[in-house]
Design goal:
It comes from Nonomuraea phyllanthi. It is built from seven helices and no strands. The chain has two domains: 22-104, c-terminal domain of poly(a) binding protein (Orthogonal Bundle), CATH 1.10.1900.10; 112-137, no CATH class. It is mostly helical.
């Protein structure tokens, strides 16, 4: 079934997706994994390590995560084609790279918002700051 199709899903497909998750997202995941498998070994190793990190700390929803993984595959395919060294992609601090990468996706931004909220709460509790900086009431 095409994600852009305007036809209603059958009850069977609705039930199946309720149990298993979006079939379209599963298809996109398989396509992403096939793309990664085609990368040169060192790029594939880097992507798989980054993927593992993102599975633990990245966006949790299917659509948001798939957009991020698709962009990740694009980045590494282009880098491999250009011969960009792995260290030039990640820089000296791979965690800084991945945190900046995740911040570009809506569900990755919640982490920065929660860090600010947490820091503000501790500052208020310590009597250092009485003004909320996290934008919440």
């Amino acid at each position: 079934m095409n994600a852009e199709s305007k036809e209603p899903k059958s009850r069977y497909l609705q039930y199946l997706e309720l149990l298993t998750g979006s079939l379209e997202e599963k298809k996109r995941w398989r396509q992403y994994k096939a793309r990664v498998k085609q990368l040169p070994e060192n790029y594939r190793t880097a992507v798989e390590a980054l993927e593992r990190y993102l599975m633990h700390f990245g966006p949790a929803d299917g659509a948001g995560a798939m957009a991020m993984f698709t962009d990740l595959a694009d980045l590494f395919e282009q880098s491999a084609a250009d011969g960009t060294p792995i260290r030039d992609i990640f820089g000296e601090d791979p965690v800084e790279f991945v945190e900046a990468f995740m911040a570009n996706y809506p569900l990755g931004q919640y982490r920065a918002r929660e860090r600010n909220r947490f820091t503000s709460a501790i500052a208020r509790a310590a009597g250092e700051d009485t003004e909320r900086r996290d934008g919440t009431d």
